[in-house]
Specification:
Shape: globular
Number of helices: 11
Order of helices and strands: HHEHEHEEHEHHHEEHHHEE
Number of strands: 9
CATH superfamily of one domain: Vaccinia Virus protein VP39
Strand content: 15-25%
CATH architecture of one domain: 3-Layer(aba) Sandwich
Structural class: alpha/beta
Mean pLDDT: 95
Strand order of the largest sheet: 3-2-1-4-5-9-6
Length: 271
Amino acid sequence: MNLEQSDKIKQGIQTTFDDVANQYDSSQFFRLSAQKMVAMLTIKEGMKVLDISTGTGIVAIEMAKQHPALQIEAIDLSAGMLAQAKRKASNEGIQNITFIQGDVEALPYEDGTFDVITCGYGMFFYPQMEQTYRQLCQKLKEGGQIIFSSFTQEAFAPYVTLFLQRLETDYQIEIPKVSMERLKTEAQMRTLAELSRPQKIEIEQHSIRYPVTVDQWWEMLNSAGYKGLLNRLDRTQLTQFKKKHLAEVEALATNGTFELNADTLFGWVRL
């Protein structure tokens, strides 16, 4: 992948998440996942933490609430997401997070700066994922920890499969299969983690499931990365797509409700 292609992908990500920033926190699984992630870390007060692809600050804020003596820097491409993160932190009186708009693939830090790096559902978005992971590990001190999460292969099935298939079949929307198939298995998580030649790796899968309505499913699609695909439809197409897709989902639901599977893999690494 050349630089032009990489920049185009990043611009698309930035635009999409600026668009969904106001609705992003509506999905419960982000908060539940952040709690699991923080619980897996070995934290000592006074550590310096970097939360990458912080989004609306869900992981950073959870960590700050549990460990107010930490020094946390939180970085994201999206100004819209960061605005939400700053608002939430301010509302909760959190003062130990510095929010920064920037590119994770071009971090402005010296090697060996951080004790901990966290990344909630972001690693698979990076165009140069393996190279970026190696660079991130260089920013850790000796004995430092990095933890990252991703959805399992079964997450959101079968509903997301119906969603993507209809976009492809009816509207010839190209699905970014490379990023969507990354880090879906324990083996993929371990392969990435091993690039840093760590002292220790732990890969854990956690079940995150709860009931949602068909309408809540549509809201979820419009409040996360999937919105970038929906934005390729014009108004008429979007109306038609919504009607057909939700009819498919409704057919699988019980009284308009189904269990959302947001099962998640966590990769914890100590260098």
